[in-house]
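Quick one, tokens below. Sequence please?
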């Protein structure tokens, strides 16, 4: 087996502001391993040298996590993603895994665990609890039955709108971020409410949608959304 301990790991920090980015970069820079740390995107295309790990501060207001994963995944070879955010429920972390994220670190433990998370995902593993990983495995095992109910699963664009709606952004704010019409946002919100069995936007922000299970769909890649329990 080849020894990859000296292989360069390219770590790109994408955070909500420069202060947050510098804080995360300072934590990563403490590692003696050959980490090359960048703020925002490191370069155009693949390095061809070693794994690329993007650390996403999900409080970043401009775009949802799913957008970053799809966009960067289309421009870099086999990138890995670690999300840093406030503590989330297990089902929400499973949702991130379905979007293509490989690790999750909550803000309260970032100083002590971010380096371990980057090490793990750079080596091809996931950094989540065993309980979350089991939920994810159970979900993917149900893939066949989920495909049969695809009409009830939000699309990729609806998933982006849902993520922003959960941040309590207005239709106009969501339209500006995703560069679509406000009327299109209203259309997506209506579809999301119907598919998730929710009554109001308040339910999307933390009520019925979060109380449900997660379900997988195929939308150009893996994604999964919250589905109210039967």
């Amino acid at each position: 087996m080849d020894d990859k301990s000296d292989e360069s790991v390219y770590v790109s920090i994408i955070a909500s502001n420069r202060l947050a980015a510098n804080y995360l970069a300072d934590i990563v820079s403490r590692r003696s391993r050959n980490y090359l740390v960048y703020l925002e995107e490191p370069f155009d295309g693949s390095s061809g040298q070693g794994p690329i790990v993007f650390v996403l501060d999900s409080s970043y207001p401009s775009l949802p996590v799913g957008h970053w994963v799809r966009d960067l995944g289309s421009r870099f070879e086999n990138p890995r993603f670690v999300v840093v955010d406030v503590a989330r429920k297990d089902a929400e972390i499973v949702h991130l895994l379905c979007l293509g994220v490989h690790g999750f670190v909550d803000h309260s433990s970032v100083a002590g665990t971010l380096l371990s998370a980057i090490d793990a995902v750079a080596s091809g593993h996931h950094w989540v609890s065993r309980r979350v990983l089991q939920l994810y495995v159970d979900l993917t095992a149900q893939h066949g039955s989920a495909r049969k109910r695809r009409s009830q699963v939000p699309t990729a664009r609806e998933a982006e709108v849902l993520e922003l709606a959960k941040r309590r952004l207005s239709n106009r704010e969501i339209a500006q971020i995703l560069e679509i019409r406000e009327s299109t946002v209203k259309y997506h919100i209506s579809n999301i409410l119907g598919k998730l069995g929710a009554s109001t936007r308040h339910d999307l922000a933390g009520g019925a949608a979060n109380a449900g299970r997660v379900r997988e769909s195929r939308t150009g890649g893996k994604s999964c959304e919250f589905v109210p329990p039967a």
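The chain has eleven helices and seven strands. The longest strand covers residues 9-14.
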